[in-house]
Amino acid sequence: MVKSPHSVTFAGACLLAACTGMHVRHHAAPELAQLRTMGYRIAVMPFAVSAPDDGFLAESLATIGEVIALEASRELPMRARIGSLLHNDVVTWLHQTEFEVIDPWHVATQLAHAGMSKEKSSDPREAREVARAIGADGLVYGEVRRWNRGYYVLQTVVDVALQLDLRDANTGKQLFLTERTETIGSGLTGGPTGYVSVATEPIAGLRGSQLRSLTRSVARHAVADMNGGDLGNQQNASTPRLAVVALAKEHDGPFRRGERVDVIAIGSPDCEVRFDLGRLRTVVPMRQSERHEDAHGARVTYLGHYIVGPTDNAQELPLYCTIQRGAARRAVAIRYRWEGALSLAATAPTQNSSP
Questions:
Q1: Three-state secondary structure along the chain?
Q2: Are 228 and 33 in contact (CB under 8 A)?
């Protein structure tokens, strides 16, 4: 177990070297691992900020202003802006997991339409009702428990603490909880500033880029805990992409039993591509078809289909296509959603006969 960042041993070590550290505890329900593999659909609720006032990092510090200037709305109060910053980081990292993540704008829109108050939507005890309004399998609640600095002799220690709490929509059960604190220090070893400068302006040695890296690290590691291990690789210039995701053929009304749902995608060549019809039918393979070469490089057409079975009945299903280069477990998989929705009606509606 890593010692708490506020221990005497830790503080002493900070005086001898550039200071970083972490403290973490978490637990997960046994069924969470299986739920992740089934495309468990989660919504991330707005984060609360309960960091104590004593030592709270304020916007007036140049370092903090540098961190949030471009990444959090200035229209929000300071604490809400910090909550928004960590919330956005968590959502970003969750896209590298096996969870299906509902877009934050959709969450906000559905809550507004349902007339959910801020208090109700942020209360884990109300998770079942809130999740039904959003259309989620589970809700992630976040709390920024520390965004503070403390002084240890000639050393400033800044720590960010984040708690994530995942609640199941059907049962209200807590599926996962993590409490993670990460720390970075500046001061005596932060640069050739001398004892007087260190004592009077110890925060000066902490650059905004370092603090921003700290917040991203806390979010990433908390999400990795929820994912049962490390995350997939991050996207880069070589990451495969899709430019088009759609139904290959127009279709009026719901698809009936025996009809074929044809899906087309266009994007990077020589990749593994599959599609999902919501959670009803998932990981349907697509095959590479036509290949096109131009000044921008190669792109190919991927085709796949699904035949509606006798029990396939669902309304307004989202269509997703996922692309990845190779089938390695840690390969970056990018998911795209078709702008429309489709319905399956294998069982024909009962029609009342005329008297």
A1: CCCCCCCHHHHHHHHHCCCEEEEEEEEECCCHHHHHHCCCEEEECCCEECCCCCCECCCCCHHHHHHHCCCCCCCCCHHHHHHHHHHHHHHHHHCCCCCEECCHHHHHHHHHHCCCCHHHHCCHHHHHHHHHHHCCCEEEEEEEEEEEEEEECCEEEEEEEEEEEEEECCCCCEEEEEEEEEEEEEECCCCCCHHHHHHHCHHHHCCHHHHHHHHHHHHHHHHHHHCCCCCCCCCCCCCCCEEEEEECCCCCCCEECCCEEEEEEEECCCCEEEEEECCCEEEEEEEEEEEEEECCEEEEEEEEEEECCCCCEEEEECEEEEEECCCCCCCCEEEEECCCCEEEECCCCCCCCCC
A2: yes
Reported as a single tens digit per residue, the pLDDT across 121-143 is 999 999 999 999 999 999 999 99
Q: Cα–Cα distances in Å, from 117 out to 105, 107, 123, 213, 329?
A: 16, 13, 10, 33, 40
pTM score over 0.85? no
Express each pLDDT in 242-300 by its tens digit. 888 999 998 999 999 999 999 999 999 999 999 999 878 888 999 999 898 877 678 89
Identify the structural domains of the chain with CATH numbers, from first to last: 8-226 (3.40.50.10610), 242-345 (2.60.40.10)
Q: Locate 119 and state its tokens.
A: 């208090």
